[in-house]
Amino acid sequence: MDVFLHYNNAFPIKTVYMRDTIKNKWITQGIKISTKIMRLLDNQRKTTVIEEKDFEYIEQYRKIYRRVIQEEKRRENITYISSAKNKSKAAWHTKRKNNPVC
Q1: What are the Cα distances from residue 8, in Å, to 3, 14, 15, 16?
Q2: C or N: which end of the chain has fewer Cβ atoms within 10 Å?
Q3: What pLDDT sits at residue 42?
Q4: What is the C-alpha to C-alpha distance for residues 3 and 70, in angstroms, rounded to an integer?
Q5: Enclosing domain of residue 23
Q6: Contact of 67 with 83, CB cutoff 8 Å
Q7: What is the pLDDT of residues 48-90, one digit of tens each?
Q8: Which are the contacts of 34, defined by CB distance < 8 A and separation ≥ 6?
């Protein structure tokens, strides 16, 4: 018991404050549904032999899916920058958020 009491004295419990996580506001219900469909089609493409026309349909769906996601991200960034008090800082924040290597 004494060892445990000394352990608590040596390593006291610290209070840690967590930042609020940033929610992806650009993810809509339609994108969630399209994601499920895209996963299903991609899994089907990988596991079964499909015809050429079905393969073309999957590729066309993938292109539309990517375009919709890019447009929603772009729209969210424009809304964020236009509503910000410091527009220059907001623009750099979105640049770093989208490309975290910088």
Answers
A1: 9, 11, 14, 17
A2: N
A3: 92
A4: 57
A5: 2-98
A6: no
A7: 988 999 999 999 999 999 999 999 999 998 999 999 999 999 9
A8: 65, 68
- The tokens for 3 are 């060892």
In the chain, the number of structural domains is 1
Tell me, yes or no, if the pTM score tops 0.85: no
- C-beta of residue 75 within 8 angstroms of C-beta of residue 26: yes
What's the sign of the alpha-carbon dihedral 55, 61, 67, 69?
Answer: negative
Q: Are 28 and 34 in contact (CB under 8 A)?
A: no
pLDDT of residue 69: 93
pLDDT in tens, 9-52: 777 778 888 776 667 788 889 999 999 999 999 999 899 988 99
